[in-house]
Design a protein that fits this description.
It contains 14 helices and 18 strands. By secondary structure, the chain is an alpha/beta fold. It is globular and about 80 Å long. The chain binds adenosine-5'-diphosphate, aspartic acid (ASP) and magnesium ion.
């Protein structure tokens, strides 16, 4: 697993001087962490966290809470008012609140559509300039709504914080969140900082975005940088379920889920949290909760994403994830000699194609077939890249066959580490339903298969039944 980028403004739980609420779950080595966090940055993070006397009207720093509202939770002015009331409740409890907002639901899709219609091979810097704008609107409207409720609030766009990122446009990683600007406003009496999610500032001074679903990552990164007591992700479901409740009626809400399982589910398609947000929460020990913005809340509501040690009982398989947007590409009759895989996958990587599963067939007479999967919207780029190396004489193949009607279905559970037979059971369930498996990959805690897309929902439901996920451990 690739370790997340450093948030330089945050400290890690590895440093015992720092009052982080939970132990860091081992994901990167101590050496790696030490190399990535400089002492001065740790001091700054510590200073930002410690209650101290300020010269402003406020004598004491309040505890910080991060609340993130997704697209459906800010879809119109009524919902923004509803969310603002929730924020008001936390302010009344004594928190300084950092609110992260998404664009109104559907807005980002509309903006992406406009970009693609205007320029199919768009300049990624302008893509980011356009698609980041949805969050600017909701941030301003949320600040205004709070002000109308007499809650001192101010909105911040990413560049104003500034939320510094890499320059990987449309998939930028957060590098630093200097807390000083917002902390100063809190000291002056502001109670809510409303921050536009999903967006940041590149070293070149241009607006970046963090990849689809990136507001979750903005939220967790702020929670780490400000030492927030908790990061609450308000969405349109009341927690993390054993599978997407929209396609499986028997899906069961989990009170708690381990970071590792959530990380796998997210990366395998469960879009309730962006993968990077879970990586960051795990790394910085952020207390992360997913809950509904539509229901009355209690402190116990939703699902807590936490360390494995904090979960008493767990099923062997704890979740089923799916991803609809998969494509399978096969290069027929490629020369079977050293360096061929390197040539193919270097070209794909340079073209920005995110390859997932890879299978190489047994070779016959020095030739082989190479199959891989990638997101559907990257097929054209993959085809162009492979065609280019063929034209340039770097690779010879008979044909490139693309199957864009596939889906990936995965079962996930940390219990798989110590239990055998999960794969056999999964394959039997699919075969009993007459579903053909095209590609298989496994890791310590997950098994994924590529199947025809038309069977995706059936597969999810059958696996959910067979592994009895509707019942608690
Ligand atoms: P938001 O706009 O609030 O960020 P998203 O649409 O990104 O919300 O994520 C919430 C959606 O994630 C839910 O509506 C649900 O359909 C989907 N989802 C997929 N897998 C799961 C799961 N295991 N548990 C809960 N929701 C899931
Ligand atoms: N609005 C962005 C998206 O739809 C970011 C987010 O909502 O998390 O992907
Ligand atoms: Mg989301």
């Amino acid at each position: 697993m690739t370790p997340p980028e450093e948030i330089a403004g945050a400290a890690t739980a590895q440093d015992t001087n720092l009052p982080f609420p939970q132990p860091l779950v081992a994901m990167v080595s101590e050496g790696q962490l030490a190399a990535r966090v400089t002492p001065s940055l740790l001091r700054r993070a510590y200073a930002a966290r410690k209650p101290r006397r300020t010269s402003g009207p406020r004598e004491k720093r309040m505890p910080v809470l991060v609340m993130k509202f997704g697209g459906t939770s800010v879809a119109n002015l009524d919902r923004i008012r509803r969310a603002a009331k929730r924020i008001g409740v936390e302010v009344a409890k004594g928190y300084d609140v950092i609110v992260i907002v998404s664009a109104m639901s559907g807005k980002t899709n509309e903006l992406v559509g406009w970009v693609e219609e205007t320029s199919p091979l768009f300049d990624a810097r302008e893509y980011d300039a356009v698609v980041s704008s949805g969050e600017n609107v909701t941030a301003g409207l949320m600040a205004l709504t709070l002000q109308e409720m007499d809650v001192p609030a101010r909105s911040w766009q990413g560049w104003q914080v500034p939320l510094k990122t890499t320059s990987a446009h449309s998939a930028a990683r957060i590098v630093d969140i200097p807390p000083a600007n917002i902390t100063q406003k809190f000291a002056e009496g502001m109670r809510v900082a409303v921050v536009a999610g999903f967006q940041g500032l590149s070293p070149e001074g241009r607006i970046t975005t963090l990849g689809r679903g990136g507001s979750d990552t903005t939220a967790v990164a702020f929670a780490a940088a400000f030492g927030a007591e908790r990061c609450d992700i308000y969405t349109d479901v009341d927690g993390v379920y054993t599978t997407d409740p929209r396609i499986c009626a028997k899906a069961r809400k989990l009170d708690k889920i381990a970071f590792e399982e959530m990380l796998e589910l997210a990366s395998l398609g469960a879009k309730v949290l962006q993968t990077r947000s879970v990586e960051l929460a795990m790394r910085y020990g952020v207390k992360l909760r997913v809950l509904s913005s539509f229901e009355e809340q209690s402190d116990k509501a939703g699902t807590l994403v936490c360390a494995e040690e904090d979960i008493m009982e767990s099923n062997v398989v704890n979740g089923v994830a799916y991803s609809r947007d998969e494509a399978k590409l096969t290069l027929l009759s490629v020369a079977d000699r050293p360096g061929i895989a390197a040539t193919i996958f270097s070209a794909l990587s340079e073209a920005g194609v995110n390859v997932d599963m890879i299978v190489q067939n047994i070779s016959e007479e020095g030739r082989t077939d190479m199959t891989f999967s990638c997101p559907t919207n990257e097929v054209a780029r993959a085809e162009a890249a492979l065609d280019r190396i063929k034209q340039d004489g770097h690779l010879n193949y008979a044909e490139l066959v693309a199957d864009t009607d596939v889906a990936k279905v995965s079962v996930v559970g940390i219990g798989m580490r110590s239990q055998s037979g999960v794969a056999a059971k999964m394959f039997k369930v699919l075969s009993d339903e007459g579903i053909n498996i095209k590609v298989i990959t496994t890791s310590e805690i997950k098994i994924s298969v590529l199947i025809d897309r038309k069977y995706m929902e059936l597969a999810v439901q059958a696996l959910h039944d067979a592994f009895e996920l509707d019942k608690a451990a």
